[in-house]
Design a protein that fits this description.
transport, 70% helix, 2 domains, Microcin C transport system permease protein, 360 residues, MetI-like fold, 18 helices, globular, cell membrane, MetI-like_sf, mainly alpha, cell inner membrane
Length: 360
């Protein structure tokens, strides 16, 4: 197993490098760089978060001619040249990329162009919000889906199995952002009930609350965002659990256990459960990362949560390249490491699995 883990760790290097090369190359063709954003703001043609049309290709590719900038008309070329040097665009793209990777290897992710804060501090500042959303969504999805999936497997083909399948498929088909808006309209003072707060993770008087009051206030704020981000995960986990249990129920060792006179409960939870839950439990890291990344942008934006998803969106719109590439590098490493952790979870749950023999 050690050799397998070592190979997987070594594969992280070319995989991550490929991710960075592709995204850096794509950036070279995206119009409207950070310098154009600043020049447009100076000229009154937009602000830091405004989309600038045309003329930005040379900024991303390291060009420095002032006539290439839409916002540079009427501004001294020396001023634009100073901006290019400040942002590092006076160097060719290859040199900028190699410098960026070298700095990343030393965990130097630079500073945000527009926030006057280092990228790593910015990520650490926003991460607790996204972790809260991803962790609670994953935990609740497992708490609901596993018992429901087991029940559906035991009652396979019954009326209960049919209507629950219909319900979770409908829930899966509803887009997360649409369900989030529906929750806001119904329960956050949109048109009906003002039960939950509209935005944020804490109330304005958070510091004045007691320890118990802070806990209640936190769950009060997180309820709707977690429900909106969890709704689509129920279908996948529930059907995965059901199918896994159905596969085990049909195997010979289950028939042998029943023939020995064991109760259905003992057969189900004493013999079937461990084998059937292998794929479900081992997939927990991957499910958490999936919820953490995929739904955070829309959910955080709708509920005004200041997390990593919203940070990434604002950085992309503002062409804040240090934040874009820094977070891409960090999350790329996290995603690749989680893939290895998922494999280790399989071995932990069932030691009979040997990835080295499978590769051979």
């Amino acid at each position: 197993m050690g050799a397998y883990i070592l190979r997987r760790l070594l594969l992280i290097i070319p995989t991550l490098l490929g991710i960075m090369i592709i995204n850096f190359a794509l950036i070279q063709f995206v119009p409207g760089g950070p310098i154009e954003q600043i020049l447009a703001q100076i000229q009154g043609e937009g602000d830091v978060f405004a989309g600038i049309a045309g003329g930005g290709g040379e900024v991303a590719s390291g060009g420095g001619a002032s006539e290439d900038y839409v916002g540079g008309r009427g501004l001294p070329p020396e001023f634009i040249a100073d901006l290019e040097r400040e942002f590092g665009f006076d160097k060719p793209p290859l040199e900028r990329f190699l410098n960026m990777i070298w700095n990343y290897l030393h965990f130097d992710f630079g500073d945000s162009y527009f926030r006057s804060i280092s990228v790593i501090d910015l990520v650490l500042e926003k991460m607790p919000v996204s972790i809260s959303l991803g962790l609670w969504s994953t935990v609740i999805a497992y708490i609901v889906s596993i018992p429901l999936g087991i029940r559906k497997a035991v009652k396979d083909g019954s009326a209960f199995d049919t209507w629950t399948s219909g319900a979770i498929i409908v829930a899966y088909a509803i887009p997360g952002f649409l369900f989030a808006i529906l929750l806001l309209v119904l329960f956050a003072g949109g048109s009906y009930w003002q039960i939950f707060p509209l935005r944020g993770l804490t109330s304005d008087n958070w510091d004045n609350l007691s320890w118990g009051g802070k806990i209640l206030d936190y769950f009060w704020h997180i309820a709707l965002p977690v429900l909106a981000s969890t709704i689509s995960a129920f279908a996948t986990l529930t059907l995965l659990t059901k199918n896994s249990f159905l596969d085990e129920i049909k195997k010979q060792y289950v028939m042998t256990a029943r023939a020995k006179g064991l109760t259905e409960s003992r057969v189900l939870y004493g013999h079937i459960f461990r084998n059937a839950m292998l794929i479900v439990i081992a997939g927990f890291p991957a499910v958490f990362i999936g919820v953490f990344f995929s739904g955070s942008l829309i959910i955080e934006t709708i509920f005004s949560l200041d997390g990593l998803g919203r940070l990434g969106f604002e950085a992309a719109v503002a062409r804040d390249y240090p934040v874009i590439f820094g977070t891409l590098f960090i999350f790329g490493i996290i995603g690749l490491v989680v893939g290895i952790l998922s494999d280790l979870m399989y071995v932990l749950v069932d030691p009979r699995i040997d990835f080295e023999k499978r590769e051979g």
